[in-house]
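Sample entry follows:

:::
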Amino acid sequence: MADNQQQPPERHFSVQRVYVKDVSFESPNAPEIFRNQGTPKHQLNLNTKINDLGEHFYEVVLEVTVTVKIEDKTVFIVEVQQAGIFNIAGFPEQELGPMLGAYCPSLLFPYAREVVSDLVVKGSFPQLVLQHVNFDMLFAQHQQRAQQEAQQDGTEPAEAVQH
C-alpha cells in the first residue's frame, strides 16, 4: 500500500548557462578626469529580473550598475547584466522565490564582479573589486517592503496570492 502513496517530486537544481547579456562602460569626463585628485565615491545599484522560460527553466538577470564620482564629476559608469539559465524543479512555491531572488543572483554576482573589475581596469582606472553582497538579506527586505506596500494598498503581494 505504501507504493500507492504519491511521492513528492524529486528536487532538481542545475546551472545550464552563465553569460553576459549586456555591458556598458562610460567615462564621460575623460581625459580631464585623470588629472583630478579628489576622493572618488562610488554607488552600487543592484536589480534582478526573472524570466520563466517554461518547463522548469528560468533566466535570472542580475543588473549591476556602479557609478563613481569625484565631487560632482562622473569618473565612470559601469553597467553589467550578468545572466544565467537555471533548471529548477520539485521545489515548493515558497522556496522557489528565494532561490530565484537570492540564491541564483548570489551565484551570478562573482561573474558580474569580474566583468566590472575588468572594464574599470580597461578604462585606465585602478581595479575596483566589489564587496560581497548578502542577497538573502536583500530578498527578505524586498519581500517585507512588498508586503508593507500591499497592506497599505489593501491588496496581497503578488508572491502571497494563492493559485
In short: The helical segments are 93-122, 135-153. Residues 51 and 147 are 22 Å apart (CA to CA). The radius of gyration is 20 Å. The longest strand covers residues 73-89.
